[in-house]
Amino acid sequence: MDEQEGRRMVTVGVLGPVVAWGEDGAELALRGPRHRELLARLVAARGRVVGVTDLVDDLWEDPPDGAVAAVRTFVAALRRALEPDRPPRAAPRVLVTQGPGYALRLPDDAVDARAAERLVSAAAAAPAATALRGLDAALALWRGEPYAGIDAAWAASERARLEDLRLGTVEQRAEALLVLDSPADVVAGLERHVATQPWREEGWRLLALALRAAGRQADALAVVRRARRTLVDELGLDPGPRLAEAEARILRQEDGAGADLWARAADTFARTASQGPARLEQSATLLGSAAVTGGLAEARDQRSAVVRAADRRGDPRLTARVLDAVHVPSVWPVPDDPAEAAVLAQVAERTLRELGPDAPDRTRARLLAGLATELRGARGGRGPEAAREAVALARRTGDPATLARALGAQVLHTVGRAGLAPARDALGAELVDVAARAGLATDEIVGRLVRVQARTALGDVAGAAGHAEAARLLAADHERPLVEVLVTWAAVVREAVEGAPDADVVRAVHEAAARLPGAGMEGLEAGLEPLAVLSLRVGRGCADAGALAGATGDPADPGAVAAWGPYRPWVRPWALHAAGRGPDAARALAGVPDPPPGLLAEALWVLAGRAAVLVGDRTVAGRARAALAPAVDELAAGSALVTAGSVAVHLGALDAFLAGDPPVTT
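Given the sequence above, the corresponding structure tokens read:
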């Protein structure tokens, strides 16, 4: 019999009174309470060695004379109980001596608490039906209060941790039942849960959604409002964004007969100044939810209005809460409305000053993350600085929602030069992990989309597609319609990278572009369609004037020029060249600026550099080569919206041009 097999002869339970069972399932005689307490202490150490002096301190508040000898006596008795068939003088395999102490060597499935943890962790990544079976198995392991009857401080800490695991498992099980369309079972299970655990917002949220799914709209809204009263009035806790999102979803269904929720919210804003801070915060919460559930354009102007209304009250704590509520995460490092972003950034900066450095870390971290988000695309170092400080403070708080927000803000400022896709991917991976563990759907979607962008830039289109699909499924579950727009564009880029014919990719670009009007993403929409087509063709080595004319439009046509949007300086030389106006193209290229930092910078530098080769401009070619060099191992596709092909290929063309004679301009 090997060591591992020997260890499986005993199992230990701490999810209730401390017990041990033999291989036949019979309970083992552990003698007195000190023996059980010693066994429990070693279980809590999770296989690590606990020194004899530490065991003495943990077993007695005032250790008696001979306590060390007593511990050794307890160990000897436990060894006989745990390994009754061990031959005399044979080395123990379960309760072993190591250095100055003892350790319990048992596999995870031989300790009920560790087995429950593994089941719950596996369920988080499993399909709902499989997850439900695992969660039921985990809950069945509880026999009562963990470490029952042991009053030591270490036991109280373990008991609290395991009770939190059990409560989270109850809620995870309810979520699986909702996915499996069994709302009645959720309602039955959660009514008592929220009554006995009123501080757990997730229980309230799931109960409200289950009532909504069961067609009990009025009861669902009543539960949300009861949750708010309980959390705020009785417990002094601020409700989080997930409860607000649940309320918005319930209200949207309630108004399905034709009333426009967001129009009603706008009317609310007109009355906020005379109806107190509570109404102001509620309106802000609804606006924040509206922005991520399909009402981005409608919510935009109202967000700055409600923030101004809060700011006028002169209470920086209220303003901080309102800014927190109206926060809208983004994966695009340019604001859709720079004027609105500037207002929110200005108020956030002033609020930080007024609260001062002694404000709670969580408050400051969330304000800084919001400030950094609104400063994306702005000149200067304040945005990146705010993002870095937000992440540092958020890590100190231990609050996953705050850390997720801060990481999302930092991604928006990890675009200062070409070649930063690995850094963005690492931030996205951490964001996905933090958000998934905490059940933060919106933040997990953001993290997935960040990884779609970064993995595409790194040439891992299969990995990007996996994250896109995960984001799409989350978006469907949580009503995030804008995600579908972005993953559609990502699919177009994947087609292009995988070598689909030009005609197929161009057709897919036009179909994806048709989704943009009305989505509320004006900062993304303007000029994207012609840029995507031109980048594709230049990336594939096309420099034919006739072929490019359809991508760039007629430079004499004001409508075509307007369609280029903010990308006009980089598109115009190609349009002029395609129209047979080579000297004009050269003059236009000579004045081309550096692309602004962002996810399209590599593609724009490719356009500038390859146009420089086309018209014989060594200066612009040299600028493009220097800017693109850090991204030599990437694709010019970091936005997952357009692709200009392999950066290495373009660097090769620029090097060849810079080493030889310029071509004759046309």
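Confidence is low (pLDDT under 50) at residues 1-8, 254-275. Try to locate this feature in the token string yourself.
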